[in-house]
Amino acid sequence: MHKTHKGQTSIEYIILLAISILFFLVIIIIAYEQFANVGQVKSRDISVNSLKTIASAAKEVYLQGSGARKTVVVTFPPEVEDNSLGIVNNSLHLIHAGTDVSFPVDYPIYGNLPTSAGTYEITLISIGTAVQIGLAPFYTSPQSFAFDFCAATSILSSNDTLTVTNQQNETLDVTLAVDWTYANVTLGVSNSSLTLPANIPQNVTVSTNISTGAAIGSYTGSIILNTTNYSVSAPVTINIINCTCTSGPGGACTNLSYIHIKTYSNSSYSQEKVAFSAPTNTTITTGNWSANSTITIDIKDPSNASIPGYPKNVTTNSSGGYIDITPIIGPVGTYTVFVSDIYSANTTFNLTGCS
User: What domains are defined for the chain?
Assistant: First the structure.
């Protein structure tokens, strides 16, 4: 009887162990399914956000008017089916893991989207009554250039880099030209043409030269890049500034200082924008103050009240300049920027509602 009881106990232990293993297997399977579901939801969110990014950019260039252009970077995860990306009934459309995903656009759109999953730069161009959407054969970085120089008593020069990246799966030939009409302020590029291997970037040197006696002011032009059926222009601005300080009381400059106000669409501050959803960071650049001195910056809203955080005192750099970045929330209307020490400079900018 004792042996029978012992054998019975062993069987019970085996059954209990089997039930425990089965229980843990069920838990593991459920957990795996939950993790898989989280991954699927995250992947779908990436697809939806990519369509939203394209739609938002389409709205932005449409509101800016004919000729406005913007390039966005979007990612379509592996779950997006090949050849499912497209424009259907004025909506951006794709199939994600067997499910249709659409994002309607309020403005007429046409063009093409990538044919497979991956990360792409998509260019959107306003043609006035509609927006053309397409995968650019190549893209440039940065998309614009701005240079500031003091009025020269000797020849000044500067070099910067323009990176051109082929987005095609085959070799691409690109030509470069400079649209520039000034004699004393010159702009040039190191290459007049490029042969770009598939998906490979190549650098071009952008050179500027300021001759003695070049007049104070702003000089504008562009670098134009062309390939078959596609062209892009990188705007270039060169500012010649009076940096000669006429000393007044306390060593402060009595000549008028300057203020630049710009908004940008990327974190490297190379792509300017004029249409956006508030709040947006606004960059205020001021200069020609005494080096390493205290200046006061104030920003007044349309009701003439200082916006939160202003006025404030800041310290200029060794060149007498300062860059301030602040979010502008609203309301719409005219804002005034004041910068002062014992002298003052001011300018205005407008925040306008998009309709």
Answer: 1-135 (no CATH), 137-244 (2.60.40.2310), 248-355 (2.60.40.1930)
Bridging pattern class, strands 131-135 and 118-126:
antiparallel
User: What are the helix (H) ranges across the chain?
Assistant: 2-64
Nearest of 327, 325, 326, 324 to residue 278 by alpha carbon: 327
The phi and psi torsions of 58 (rounded to 5 degrees) equal: -60, -45
Helical spans, DSSP H, in 180-245: none
Contact 240, 185 (CB under 8 A): yes
Q: Which two tokens stand for residue 355?
A: 């309709």
Are 102 and 91 spatial neighbours (Cβ–Cβ below 8 Å)? yes
Q: Residue 53's closest CA among 143, 97, 119, 150?
A: 119
pTM for the full predicted model: 0.45
Per the DSSP assignment, residues forming a β-bridge with 131 are 109, 126
pLDDT in tens, 88-141: 777 888 898 888 888 888 877 877 788 888 888 888 887 667 787 876 677 787
